[in-house]
């Protein structure tokens, strides 16, 4: 589709391009002065995913503010780029049936404030997760066709089942049925209990969990009571505790002052000479005592400037 292929058709309301194999679409291929186009049929017409990206650009630059219906069925679409339809503000009907869509992502249907019908039948949806459900819920009270998809009825479908039961949208709930597992084949998802989809915790596990929670609560109460008693005892002995703290502080202060005083004395350089002199005197005194111990008992030592004399003791004679 070349640029401005239909620009001369200023009264064009319906454009049917179904059954083609469009491989290349110019960004301004759908640009028509006055945007008179109201219905665009592109079913079974896109050659591959590259053509879908070209179509996204063409819808953005085509100026299709008046488009009311868009049919993209049968194009083997596996995903929809976010914002694909954001430039179609007045679109009322969007047909995406008979594709290969697996999920709806955030922003897929953004900007579609006037949409009335969304057809997602005959795709490959297994379930819808939280982000997809929010995207569908944002569309408001519209008709959403979700039937004839291979839904898996497991615990992962719990949110989808809850949405089917509570959503304000008009969903074809009778056509939304389980394709697997085998025991739930062709069963309607709506009103399907959590036990049927395997989301129920065994009773024994629930009882054990409840017992464990009760034990934790009792332990918390006991610890809280002990803590209250401890605080009450501290309150009653607050004066004694205060005096004890003051005494400990004073004792620590005295010890620190003693250490500080000793540090000042040891660090004074003037005391180094005194310490050396005292050490010399102690050494001379120790040498003298050693010499005295080496002499016999009957000898005495006279200072060095006198003669050393030996005095022998004699035994007195009895008269």
UniProtKB/TrEMBL annotation:
<feature type="domain" description="LRRCT">
    <location>
        <begin position="149"/>
        <end position="200"/>
    </location>
</feature>
<dbReference type="InterPro" id="IPR052286">
    <property type="entry name" value="Wnt_signaling_inhibitor"/>
</dbReference>
<dbReference type="InterPro" id="IPR001611">
    <property type="entry name" value="Leu-rich_rpt"/>
</dbReference>
<dbReference type="GO" id="GO:0005886">
    <property type="term" value="C:plasma membrane"/>
</dbReference>
<keyword id="KW-0812">Transmembrane</keyword>
<keyword id="KW-1133">Transmembrane helix</keyword>
<dbReference type="InterPro" id="IPR000483">
    <property type="entry name" value="Cys-rich_flank_reg_C"/>
</dbReference>
<keyword id="KW-0677">Repeat</keyword>
<dbReference type="GO" id="GO:0090090">
    <property type="term" value="P:negative regulation of canonical Wnt signaling pathway"/>
</dbReference>
<dbReference type="InterPro" id="IPR003591">
    <property type="entry name" value="Leu-rich_rpt_typical-subtyp"/>
</dbReference>
<keyword id="KW-0433">Leucine-rich repeat</keyword>
<keyword id="KW-0472">Membrane</keyword>
<keyword id="KW-0732">Signal</keyword>
<dbReference type="InterPro" id="IPR032675">
    <property type="entry name" value="LRR_dom_sf"/>
</dbReference>
<dbReference type="Pfam" id="PF13855">
    <property type="entry name" value="LRR_8"/>
</dbReference>
<dbReference type="Pfam" id="PF00560">
    <property type="entry name" value="LRR_1"/>
</dbReference>
<feature type="transmembrane region" description="Helical">
    <location>
        <begin position="216"/>
        <end position="236"/>
    </location>
</feature>
<protein>
    <submittedName>
        <fullName>Trophoblast glycoprotein-like</fullName>
    </submittedName>
</protein>
């Amino acid at each position: 589709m070349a640029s401005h292929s239909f620009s001369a058709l200023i009264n064009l309301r319906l454009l049917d391009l179904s059954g083609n194999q469009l491989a290349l679409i110019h960004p301004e291929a759908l640009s028509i002065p006055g945007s008179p186009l109201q219905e665009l049929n592109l079913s079974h017409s896109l050659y591959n995913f590259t053509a879908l990206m070209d179509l996204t650009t063409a819808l953005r630059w085509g100026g299709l503010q008046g488009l009311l219906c868009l049919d993209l069925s049968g194009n083997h679409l596996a995903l929809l780029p976010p914002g694909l339809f954001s430039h179609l503000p007045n679109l009322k009907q969007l047909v995406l049936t008979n594709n290969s869509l697996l999920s709806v992502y955030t922003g897929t249907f953004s900007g579609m404030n006037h949409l009335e019908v969304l057809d997602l039948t005959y795709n490959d949806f297994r379930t819808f997760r939280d982000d997809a459900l929010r995207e569908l819920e944002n569309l408001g009270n519209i008709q959403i066709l979700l039937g004839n998809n291979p839904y898996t009825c497991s615990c992962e479908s719990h949110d989808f089942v809850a949405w089917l039961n509570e959503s304000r949208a008009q969903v074809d709930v009778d056509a939304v049925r389980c394709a697997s597992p085998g025991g739930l084949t062709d069963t309607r998802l709506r009103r399907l209990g959590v036990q049927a989809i395997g989301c129920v915790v065994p009773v024994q596990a629930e009882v054990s969990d409840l017992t464990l929670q009760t034990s934790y609560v009792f332990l918390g109460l006991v610890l809280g009571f002990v803590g209250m008693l401890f605080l009450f005892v501290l309150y009653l002995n607050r004066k004694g505790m205060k005096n004890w703290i003051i005494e400990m502080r004073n004792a620590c202060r005295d010890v620190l002052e003693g250490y500080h005083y000793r540090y000042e004395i040891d660090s004074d350089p003037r005391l180094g000479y005194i310490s050396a002199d005292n050490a010399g005197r102690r050494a001379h005194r120790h040498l003298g005592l050693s010499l005295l111990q080496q002499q016999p008992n009957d000898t005495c030592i006279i200072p060095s400037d006198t003669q050393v004399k030996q005095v022998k003791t004699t035994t007195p004679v009895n008269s």
